[in-house]
Design brief:
Sel1-like, 486 residues, two-stranded parallel ribbon, single chain, two-stranded parallel sheet, Serine Threonine Protein Phosphatase 5, Tetratricopeptide repeat, 25 helices, mainly alpha, Sel1_AlgK, Beta-lactamase HcpC, TPR-like_helical_dom_sf
Length: 486
């Protein structure tokens, strides 16, 4: 569930202001509700944070038009700061029509008059502006010049260009050094970035305790992007004791700032009732805000709620639309579930070929889809039965740690279905799936102990395993427990 972009790329100083879709009876493995440990996402989030704000009293007293008029009057007297602020206005479209060419021209004038921040903003345009202006090697050169002049945004950005190999060769050590330089100069966003280096062990030795401390410092100093990873560290006990309530506070801070992942995380907390009162309707509202910002995780989760009419009115068509929006971004679970819908003919017209295509696409990031591919070929539902191909898919799923793939391999070798019966392989696959908490694996191992099939007969162990499966709501195991307790 935790997938957060960490590093913040900026271009100057500060803003100017102001249910299971299908049952196993359908021959399709149902998709369980995901709960994933935190993982660090790819680095290099682009975030515009431009220019120095004008004095607070002026900003309150003057509207945009009046402010632009004043800046132009001052610029006519060769006021370097006014010229810089006009460049910023044209870049951001604040009080004037956005015009990157004019912004570049004003920044160049300001740079020639000694405004280092203008040099940083020119580099920002060359890195992240319109495609016609982009020139990564030149952006790197200008960030480097401004960084050596002491501009801490340029130091931060230069570090990230070294980190990502933009306009230069990748160099994590130099990236770390420049980010640390910006942190030492007092840039809170660089402090958050430095924390991420320590958290991931990039360019330096991994140090979770130091990472947590730096995120806390960054958050105190106003770096809003520190709240999300800090929440993760408190939720999962990274770099110190776990504290879900503190984690929730940080997630809510991120959500209130409009961070899509912050909104998503708060949504999952309300859906699960983890540390907050369970409220699926409120969860849906958080998912909606994140989904509207294009976050595929939330598009998928909200789609699932619409599909089942939980927390929202039942709306299968909206569910499909949201699944497709997430799938278009390559989100594996959405691709898999679309495959399930097309295979079973739920909501959409049944189309096995399309289902298999979705499963194949999903399998790149979501190994559960490999099991669904295996099931399609072993059952011959809509395709020619191909046991060898099914086994190959199940084995690929098992190799990636997918428990349902392991369960099906266990059953195949247990029964000798189209392969030579192999008790050693069957038990090994079932034990591996059981260690991941799969209830059917518990049930099958219990059956082996009860009947003495490939395991030494032991009714006590059988009952223990049946009970574990029954506790997860597995119906055959519930019946087995009742039978053995008679």
């Amino acid at each position: 569930m935790r997938l957060a972009p960490i590093f913040v790329f900026c271009t100057a100083l500060v803003p100017i202001t102001d249910a299971a879709l299908a049952s196993s009876d359908d021959g399709v493995v149902p998709l369980p509700m995901p709960k994933v440990e935190p993982s660090i996402a790819p680095i290099g989030l682009d975030l515009k944070m431009l220019g120095q704000p004008p004095a607070g009293e002026l900003q309150q007293a003057l509207g945009d038009n009046a402010r632009i008029f004043r800046l132009r009057s001052e610029a006519a007297t060769n006021d370097a700061q006014a010229i810089f602020q006009l460049g910023l206005a044209y870049e951001t479209g604040r009080g004037v029509e956005q015009n990157y060419v004019k912004a570049y021209g004003y920044y160049k004038q300001a740079r020639d008059m000694g405004i280092t921040a203008a040099l940083t903003n020119i580099a920002g345009l060359l890195k992240s502006g319109p495609s016609s202006m982009r020139d990564l090697p030149k952006a790197f050169e200008l960030f480097s010049e401004a960084a050596h002049l002491g501009d801490y945004w340029a130091q931060n950005n230069l570090g990230l260009m070294y980190l990502n190999g933009e306009g230069t060769e990748k160099d994590p050590q130099k990236a770390f050094e420049w980010i640390k330089e910006a942190h030492n100069a007092g840039l809170a966003q660089a402090t958050a970035n430095l924390a991420s280096f320590y958290r991931q062990g990039v360019g330096t030795t991994k140090d979770l305790s130091k990472a947590r401390s730096l995120y806390e410092e960054a958050a105190r100093r106003g770096a809003g992007e520190a709240h999300l990873p800090l929440g993760e560290m408190f939720e999962f006990g990274e770099g110190g004791p776990a504290d879900l309530q503190i984690a929730i506070e940080h997630y809510k801070e991120a959500a209130e700032a409009g961070d899509p992942l912050g909104l998503h995380y708060v949504g999952t907390l309300y859906e699960e009732g983890a540390g907050v009162p369970k409220d699926v309707s409120l969860a849906a509202r958080y998912y909606r805000r994140a989904a509207d910002r294009g976050l595929p995780q939330s598009q998928y989760m909200l789609g699932r709620l619409y599909l089942n009419g939980v927390g929202v009115e039942l709306d299968p068509q909206e569910a499909v639309r949201l699944y497709q929006a997430a799938a278009d971004q390559g989100f594996g679970q959405a691709l898999n579930d679309l495959g399930v819908l097309y295979e079973t003919g739920q909501i959409v017209e049944k189309d096995i070929k399309k289902a298999l295509t979705y499963y194949e696409l999903a399998a790149e990031t979501f190994p559960f889809a490999l099991t669904n591919l295996g099931l399609a070929y072993i059952s011959g539902m809509g395709v020619e039965q191909d046991v060898a191909k099914a086994l190959d898919y199940f084995e690929k799923a098992a190799a990636r740690g997918e428990p349902q793939g392991e369960v099906f391999l266990g059953k195949i070798y247990l029964e000798g279905f189209a392969v030579q019966q192999d008790g050693e392989k069957a038990i090994a696959y079932l034990k591996s799936a059981a260690l991941k908490g799969d209830p059917e694996a518990f049930h099958l191992l219990a059956w082996c102990y009860e009947t003495g099939t490939f395991l030494v007969q032991d009714e006590t162990k059988a009952l223990e395993l049946y009970q574990l499966a029954a506790d997860s709501g597995f119906p055959p195991a519930i019946e087995a427990v009742q039978r053995l307790r008679r």
